[in-house]
Design goal:
single chain; TIM Barrel; two-stranded parallel sheet; beta-glucosidase activity; alpha/beta; hydrolase; Glyco_hydro_1
């Protein structure tokens, strides 16, 4: 059977402002929480000592070089590009009454450049950053006032870009707030579960208000949420392991439940009761939450196993802890590779919500090597993406409605978790190392031509033999 995707399938790639733009203090931009994480999400936030090196201050200089990069994405045939707006370019402190025109103008130019090539912008409102001033003076998402600040920001960009952007996301990997509460919520690490879930509630209400504003201002747009998805397999067939896998999945499915169904599910209400968590939820909050998303988007990098055996050794995969699956291999960073898990996930979400799905992050971080002839033979990346895309097609054949696929990240970027350049995802190599040395020159890898061919053939060029075994 041929691997042909729908003709309107949105092929592309995904980026984040704080990992690519650089120009951290240019154009009136304020400091964000990301600027206070010079070593990445897996390390504590710190104040910014004068002169301290931060790789993200320049990143890959997308702020100045985006025309060149967009042209390369267009050469591959991108139908869409996911990136984010840096909230602090629009409202540097977060609480201003009037937005920063220079920041607004930058994104006007960026979106115009995409549209020039027929690339649809897919825009995240908040991707692992918020104005640091909102953390310092208000307590981040722990303060209900932040809902109003976010709503003002969202309304501003919807009104400004209503004729340019038709696909929107509210918060990136919103469930990661449970594991890195400064990154997601602007709360001190080690905050109580009560404080975290109250802040999460404020964020969910803000997301729903943004959805409502988008529906009002841009009626022909589609807006979704974004969750870091990780399927869990029972480590054994013991019933307790099955229940533990269900419990672990519900931790992140909860965020889809609220945003796709408009209310808190019974399983999370039981969890709150058992842990003595009492949220302040107003009648207006409940009304706001009824404004649900148009589609569900998610990142997928790995699956995990779950067991009721508390002594079982866990390994780190990104920010999350996981129990390795003995039937799977892993990347250089210990992330288990499970293409079939993506098909399982797509079917699971479709069966549960019956809303369109969008895979907005999936990719392989690896240490690439430049050969003597200047080429980068990243066959490992091609194999990873090929096998995952074959499983996406299988899910579509199962009857799942999938809007598109944006691989992470189509050009080498600064890693979010550890702030490295050596962990490379891109089809395009950027000449910069972990110490900030390099020319920033762009270079096509072998995978560049491969992805171009995949898009041009609508997936027909994919190799259908998939191997999950070690």
């Amino acid at each position: 059977m041929k691997t042909t995707f729908p003709t309107d399938f949105l092929w592309g790639g995904a980026l984040a402002a704080n990992q690519v733009e650089g120009a951290y203090n240019v154009g009136g931009k304020g400091l964000s929480t990301s600027d206070y994480q010079p070593h990445g999400l897996m390390y504590p936030a710190t104040e910014r000592p004068a002169g301290e090196f931060n790789l993200k201050e320049i990143a890959i200089d997308f702020y100045h070089r985006y025309p060149q990069d967009i042209a390369l994405f267009a050469e591959m045939g991108f139908k869409t590009l996911r990136t984010s707006i840096a909230w602090t370019r629009i409202y540097p402190r977060g609480d201003e009454e009037v937005p920063n025109e220079e920041g607004l103008a930058f994104y006007d130019a960026l979106f115009d450049e995409m549209l020039k090539y027929g690339i649809q912008p897919l825009i995240t409102l908040s991707h692992y950053e918020m104005p640091y001033a909102l953390v310092k003076h208000y307590g981040g998402w722990g303060n209900r006032k932040t809902i109003g600040f976010f709503e003002r920001y969202a309304t501003t960009v919807f009104e400004r870009y209503q004729h340019k952007v038709k696909y929107w996301l509210t918060f990136n990997e919103i469930n990661v707030s449970l594991f890195s509460c400064f990154t997601g919520l602007g709360l001190p690490e080690g905050s109580s579960e009560q404080a975290v879930y109250q802040a999460v509630h404020h964020q969910l209400v803000a997301s729903a208000r943004a959805v409502k504003a988008c529906h009002r201002i841009i009626p022909d747009a589609k807006i979704g949420n974004m969750v870091a998805a990780m399927p869990y397999y029972p480590l054994t067939c013991h019933p307790d392991d099955l229940l533990e896998a269900q419990r672990k999945e519900r931790e992140w499915l909860f965020f889809f439940d609220v945003q796709a169904r408009g209310d808190y599910p019974s399983h999370i209400q039981r969890r709150f009761k058992e842990r003595n968590i009492e949220l302040e939820i107003s009648p207006q909050d409940r009304e706001d939450l009824r404004e649900t998303i148009d589609f569900l988007s998610f990142s997928y990098y790995m699956s995990s196993c779950a067991t009721a055996d508390k002594d079982k050794q866990q390994a780190t995969g990104n920010i999350l802890k996981m129990i390795p699956n003995p039937y799977l291999s892993a990347s250089e960073w210990g992330w288990q590779i499970d293409p079939a898990g993506l098909r399982h996930l797509l079917n699971q979400l479709w069966d549960r919500y019956q809303k369109p799905l969008f895979i907005v992050e999936n990719g392989l971080g690896a240490k690439d090597r430049i050969e003597a002839d200047g080429s980068i033979q990243d066959d490992y990346r091609i194999a990873y993406l090929n096998d995952h895309l074959v499983q996406v097609h299988e899910a579509i054949a199962d009857g799942v409605e999938v809007l598109g696929y944006t691989c992470w990240g189509p050009i080498d970027i600064v890693s979010a978790s550890t702030c490295e350049m050596s962990k490379r995802y891109g089809f395009i190599h950027v000449d910069r190392d972990d110490h900030g040395e390099g020319t920033l020159q762009r270079r096509r890898k072998k995978s560049f031509g491969w992805y171009k061919q995949v898009i041009a053939t609508g997936g027909e060029s994919l190799v259908r033999e998939v191997k999950n075994e070690k």
